[in-house]
Amino acid sequence: MEKVFINSIGSISAQKTFDNKVFLEEITTYEDNVIPAIEPNYKDFIPPAAARRMAKGIKMGVVAAKIAMEEANLSNVDAIITGTGMGCVRDSEKFVTAILDNQEQFLTPTSFIQSTHNTVAGQIALGIGCKGYNFTYVHSSISFESALIDALMQLQTKEAENILVGGVDESGEHTNTIHKLIQHIKLEKINTNKLLQSNTEGAVFGEGANFFVLSNNKQNSCYAQILGVKTFNTLPISKLTANLEGFLKDNNLSVDDIDVLISGNNGDLNFDNYYLELTQGLFNNTQQVYYKHLSGEFNTASSFGFWLGAKILKTQHIPSEIALNSIKSKGFGTVLLYNQYRGKNHSFTLLRQC
């Protein structure tokens, strides 16, 4: 099968990641339990008249996709595949609120039209004139990985040459209130630098959009090669190590071949033990990094981890702010990403230096 490469990236997150020339040189620290994305000047990417009609999630997705397309020197792609957990949740909240406030009468359809989960992929396609395969996966916290697997299969079998893949989720005020009530979001405000020492239930929530141009043709801008992706809806902690070793074996690798483990710890007292099973066990002697103190937790937060892995492999550098242990590898050739949310939807992703 064909090899698959990450030829370009575009990221909008709670850090200043929209400039591909820098790599976490300036870290923004928060004292909160919900953190916002740092947005670029949208006028540089979207006509102001169009931007005014777009929800935040749409703008983040469209701009992140444009940044990735420009870096790959492409004006169009063969397919657009996105993952999102909640879609454009702010417009969903607006529409439901209008139904209640107006007693189901005199409703304007705009918020409903823009609240559908495939709105971001549709807007990107309209913007670049892409009439190819366009699909959005809504699979909770493996939404991005589902999109990634789809793209991998198409590229490995040469059904496409260039595919734009991304994960995007925005933060909604009402939705976050519900998450706080059920303690999925931490009740107290947390200094994000001390997230893993919080020792409380719930996570710090965030938002963002991360897009990538994947291809079976390696460009000079290449960040990494994707070796494999595997997901599990449910996975008991007792079987985590065995399944991971099986995944590595399927890709002709062992634990000793992994230079960096990128871990999705979010500071939740009840579920970070899944990560500890690996960081204190199988990968105890491997360099480890984490990222959700920078991005926050959301359904496609793993796409930020994917962005991080690609940047590490291209720059051969790990900023001190993301280090999870004191071990230092001599070089970064192979990276493993592991993510799960509340004990479900586990994902393993392997990247290799291109």
Automatic annotation (TrEMBL):
Keywords: Transferase. InterPro entries: Beta-ketoacyl_synthase (IPR000794), Ketoacyl_synth_N (IPR014030), Thiolase-like (IPR016039). SUPFAM superfamilies: Thiolase-like. The lineage of its organism: Bacteria, Pseudomonadati, Bacteroidota, Flavobacteriia, Flavobacteriales. The keyword Nucleus does not apply. It comes from the Bacteria. Residues 46-218 form the Beta-ketoacyl synthase-like N-terminal domain. This is Beta-ketoacyl synthase chain length factor.
